[in-house]
Write a structure and sequence with these properties.
Length: 91
């Protein structure tokens, strides 16, 4: 199978690249591969649209419901540290 055919039929890689693109940046090569795949795959195109909508909704929810800075209180941090050390000592 040629390289171009592999790109066209690899939905798993395409969905990974869609998510990677939203979270960070993709390389020029990844961008081209994704575009080629999306030209022929309506399922991944729909996945990309739905993923962007969900991502935007989560971002809006996060921004509207969370204060600018979230801090853990010192008692919780201490308890968490003790639990981590306890688990590490079991091994």
């Amino acid at each position: 199978m040629s390289y171009l055919k592999k790109i066209q039929y690899n939905c798993k890689k395409a969905t990974f690249l869609i998510e990677k693109k939203m979270a960070d940046r993709i390389t020029f090569r990844e961008h081209i591969e994704l575009r080629i795949h999306l030209m022929g795959c309506s399922v991944c195109t729909l996945y990309g649209k739905q993923s962007r909508v969900i991502n935007d909704m989560v971002q809006q929810l996060w921004q509207s419901s969370m204060p600018d800075q979230v801090r853990l209180d010192n008692e919780f941090k201490k308890e968490l540290q003790e639990r981590i050390e306890e688990e590490l000592n079991k091994k």
